Structure formats: structure tokens, C-alpha cells
Amino acid sequence: MFEIRRRVVTAVICGNRRAKTDVACNEGRLAEQRRDTRMEDSTPMYNDSTPPLISHAKETASPVQIGRGVAHANGARPRHKYIILGAGCAGLSLCWYLLEAGVRDPILILDRKTEFRNDRTWCFWDTEPTPFTHLATHRWPAWTVRGGNDEAGVRAASPATPYVRLRGGDFYRMVLDRIKAHPNVTVRLGVPITGGYRDEPDGVCVPTGAGDCHGEFLFDALALGSPRFPVARPGDLTFLQQFFGQVVRTERDVFDPQTVTLMDFSVTSPVTEPDPAIRFMYLLPISPREALVENTLLLPTVGGAKDALAPPENAATGRRAIAAYLSARYDSPAFTVTSEEQGLIPMTTRDFPLRTGQRTFAIGLAGGAARPSSGYAFLRIQKRCQALALAVTTGDWKPVDQTFSPPRTAMLDRIFLQAMRQNPGAVPDYFKRMFAHVPPDMLVRLLSDSASFRDCLGVVRVLPLGDFVRAAAFCVPHLWADKRGGPH
Ligand SMILES: Cc1cc2nc3c(=O)[nH]c(=O)nc-3n(C[C@H](O)[C@H](O)[C@H](O)COP(=O)(O)OP(=O)(O)OC[C@H]3O[C@@H](n4cnc5c(N)ncnc54)[C@H](O)[C@@H]3O)c2cc1C
Fold it and tell me: 0.90 cut: is pTM over it?
């Protein structure tokens, strides 16, 4: 076996800034590799400004291991009770909750990346506690949406449920620190899963380039790299949310640190016939002189991730768009870029079964955690992983068989995606209406999967009736099929 018995001393993220280089396509390999309509891996490519938490860049020939590693007691073939594919948000969250639930059986986590980096930012409305929320570096009580038919922005605030921001690196470090204290957990990096995985009579087998791994239960947290990512059914709606972000530092005060810009449609090019992408800027102000600015595209697709921009093109487009945006919106401030990130999130009505086999489960983006109408996934991942860990340990599977959102919200999401497809030019107006006329707390509940029937009605009534009746009429046959669980 390829195990290298090497305890890795975790390097703590420190402030060393790396020089800015082009975003390397070290994880994603987007467009070229796509087959049929399956969403394949688009794990974002980062040129992050922080050094890796854990790296074995010089040892590319062999996987790196965190934790003690576990061989089968009788010395026969190595076997783990739980195998988790993917050491990202979902894989590590599940491990956290398994440990929390008292699991001391062997857990093996495999990932092809060779190091952990502060590679992304997670934001969400602080509507429910998670073990990680205290890591938030920022809490914004207010947000704004700009653009559409007029230039004026709409501002809303909900101090009781602020919009919070977590750094990916802080999350990874917290989970890895816990893992290091539990000898039953092994994380192996530098292990690409290329051949899928298969059910066996007594468990699951994962072939890897360095040998087969056997386990009793498998959790697939490979995001868009999952070999069992569901294909689209006729009638499914998918937008690819593709973005490129830069953390910028300006030489004078320009940002309002109290207010997040969720969407600014006003300085981006409007939707045109041959280019149906909906574009907007997303801006997280970290201080009056520092912000994460993201050029965001919502691309309608039937072909899946192959319709996304190739990462270098996305990066080049994003850099130009961000410079133009800062110039137009903030009166040409001089600025420097301290880090960049990019990613792709599927916003889709595809059917994501929790179980992908006898003893295999899909979690994270591979398990449909991204909300179809927004792409937010962090809180959904937490809820699903926590429920799954409890189910595994208690044998009560009922809570995990529930869908992410109640049928009324799923229905609204489908209708909203259809309206976006039918009227891409009207999307800024839809969002502005919602943020202007729906009470902020109500809207936050809708965006955070906790909307009541009354909340849903409160949102529907501010949207343009004609557009949404037409979209709903189009969706009816599919809604019915969804309900029956039948094919479309
Ligand atoms: C840049 C970015 C910002 C986001 N911001 C937000 C946000 O603000 N709020 C929010 O709610 N959601 C956000 N999301 C969406 C979602 O929360 C994240 O994508 C989240 O990380 C998904 O978790 P995951 O575990 O499914 O995937 P990931 O965290 O991407 O983990 C997948 C792991 O699988 C590994 N992998 C993939 N393919 C293979 C393979 N073939 N072999 C071995 N390993 C493989 C990857 O290396 C990776 O470590 C964001 C997504 C991105 C990309």
C-alpha cells in the first residue's frame, strides 16, 4: 500500500503574502474534459494569498497523510469503517460531526489536492448556529442590490441575522486540528479518484492510483468531480454561477464597511441575444479600503459545466470587469490586488439522491447542497452532514431522508429559474423588487431555507405577475413529476 506513515506538522496560516500570479488551473480542468450533461469537477482554481496550511508540494509522487492511519486489525487488507472522498467543506464537516457524535471507528479521507489553502470565502445569513460560525471575520448588518431599470440601490438591514463571512483557511485549520487529536482519522492528500467507486457485498471499494481502499460506508464529497454527479433530466433547469474575485486594497477610503453589495447590475453589460449570461458584481467590504469584489455570471445551460468559461478566460474577463467596475462605481481609485479566487457553482433542479449506492452517500455540491436559485450551500452542507452523522451513529435515517428545502421553496426555486431563463434582462428588477418590498427578515428566511408559506406568499406578491405566471405554467408538468418522484 501506498501509505506513508508521516505525521504532518500543520503549518499555521501566517500572514506571508504570495506574489500575484495567474490563476492556475490546478484543480478544475473545466471545459475541455466534459462528457454529456454531467457536471464534472470545477473545483475552483485559486491563487490565494496565504501559504498552505499543509503542503507536500515537493513530494508529488506520494500521498501525504494527516493522522495516524489505520490498518485492519488482522493486518489483512486495510479497511475503514467510513471513507470520505473529498476534504473540502462537506467532507471535513461530516468528519467533524462524526467525531462529535462519538465515532471512534476508522475514518479515511481522500483528496487529490496536495495542500490546504485559504482558498475560498463562505458567506451566509447567521440564522442558525453552526460549530464554525464563531470563526466569522466579518458580520454585516445591511446589504444592497443595485441596477435594473434605474441606477438607485435598494438597501436592507436585518441586524438580528447579519450576513457573515468565514475564511476557508480558518475552517480547514479548525477541523484539521481536531482530526490531529483523533488517531482514528486519516486524511490522505494527493490521491485523485479517477475510476469511480463500487459497491461490494460487505461495503465499498474505491480504486485509486495507489491501490484499492475498502470501507463499510462511503461519503462522496467530490463536488462537481463526483463520478456519480446526476445527469440532467428533460425539463431540468440549470444555471452555472461562475465567478472570479479579487481582494483589492485602495489608496483612499471608498467602501462602506457596514453594507455588503449582494448584486450590482448597474455597471456590468446588459444581457444581449448571443450572450444570455446575467452578470453582476458582488462586493464584501472588509474595511473602507479593502474589499473582495467578484465578477459573477449566471450562465443558462443544458450542457452542464462544459458551457462554463475556461478558467483563464474567466480570470481575464473578471480582472477587466473588476477594474472597470471600481473605476465607474468608486471614481477610479488606485488599487492593488492581494489575492484572487474563482469558482463554479451549479444552480440546478436536477435530482440529487442522498444515496448513490447500497452504502454510498453524496454530500456537499455532489449531493445537491447548492440552492438552485442562489448557489448558497454552506448552511445546507452543515445541516445535511450533521443529520447524516447522527443517522449513521443512531440508525435513525428519517431526518436525512428529508429534502434540503420544503416543497414550497423547491417549487419557488424552479419557477424563479424558469423566469430567469425566460426574461434574463428582467432579473435585476426581480431582485430589486424583492429587496425593496419584502421585509428583510422575511427575505432572509426565504434565502436561508426557513421560509413559511406566508413568507413565500410575501415574496411572490412583489414579483411581476405576468412573468411568474408564465414561468409557473411552464413548470407545472415538471412540478408534478417532481412530486411523484417520477421521470420528467
Ligand atoms: C469560491 C467559492 C465561494 C463560495 N462561496 C460560498 C458562500 O459564500 N456561501 C455559500 O453558502 N456557498 C458558497 N460556495 C458554495 C459551496 O459552499 C462551496 O462550493 C463548498 O466548498 C462546497 O463544498 P463541497 O465539499 O461540496 O466541495 P469542495 O469544498 O469544493 O470540496 C471538494 C473536494 O473534492 C476534491 N476533489 C474533487 N474531485 C476530486 C477527485 N476526482 N479526486 C480526489 N479529490 C477530488 C477537491 O480537491 C476538494 O477538496 C462557494 C463556492 C466556491 C467555489
Answer: no
